[in-house]
Design goal:
heterodimer, A: about 70 residues, mainly alpha, 434 Repressor (Amino-terminal Domain), two-stranded antiparallel ribbon, 2 strands, globular, B: about 150 residues, 5 helices
Chain lengths: ~70, ~150
């Protein structure tokens, strides 16, 4: 599945800023569980949520999410 | 004090919703035997008032569970985080699975009716149960999976 191929470094980016999952969830207006599933690559977020996450963490969407090399870029 | 209270409340509310759905699933499934017997008695004009109440309660509980499943209980809890895109995705998967299982069950029933004498009135409560309980169980399982981090 293409969905499972999405890589993310959300956990690292969140950790660098010292946010808990609950704090990040409150900033982007979703549940903590949603943040948890995105970090664990269980759930692929929508473009809107990806943009909100990037804004909340002060980085670009490409810094948080990427495709593996075999899917090209 | 620096931690926002909203996500914690959301977590607790979501766990409460899952617990409520689970209890509803168990209760609805447990009442099926009694409802089938009551349906048979009503259909053969031997039913008592208690049979009608039993069938009515079954239909009411099934309707409430279905409403919670399809709306996320927005009419009870207005927190938008309770209905975020993960919940909507889980709900879509659960409803899709419920639809497929319900159609397959109806097809199996149709085939069975061609070869055996099956009272369709007796089968309707079972089909209603399948149509409500299968997506509800699937939704609960997906929500718990998310809770554990997959």
């Amino acid at each position: 599945m293409a969905d499972a191929a999405l890589r993310n470094r959300l956990k690292d980016a969140r950790g660098e800023l010292g946010f808990t999952q609950a704090e990040l969830a409150a900033r982007v207006g979703v549940s903590r569980k949603t943040i948890n599933t995105v970090e664990n690559a269980v759930f692929v977020p929508s473009t809107i949520l990806a943009l909100r996450l990037a804004a909340a963490l002060g980085c670009k969407v490409e810094d948080l999410f990427s495709l593996p090399p075999e899917h090209g870029r | 004090m620096s931690k926002p209270s909203k996500p914690l409340d959301t977590d607790r509310a979501m766990k409460g919703r899952i617990r409520g759905l689970s209890v509803g699933i168990i209760f609805l499934s447990a009442t099926l035997g009694g409802v089938l017997a009551a349906t048979g008695r009503i259909a053969t004009h031997q039913g008592r008032a208690v049979d009608e109440v039993r069938v009515g309660a079954f239909l009411l509980l099934a309707s409430v569970l279905l409403a919670i499943l399809l709306t996320g209980g927005r009419w009870v809890i207005g927190n938008p985080a309770m209905n975020d895109e993960l919940v909507r995705a889980n709900r879509a998967k659960a409803v899709w699975l419920g639809y497929v299982v319900l159609i397959l069950s109806a097809m199996a029933l149709y085939v069975a009716m061609l070869f055996n004498e099956v009272d369709f009135t007796q089968m309707l409560p079972a089909l209603i149960l399948i149509g409500v309980v299968v997506p509800a169980i699937c939704f609960v399982a997906l929500e718990r999976k998310g809770e554990k981090g997959g």
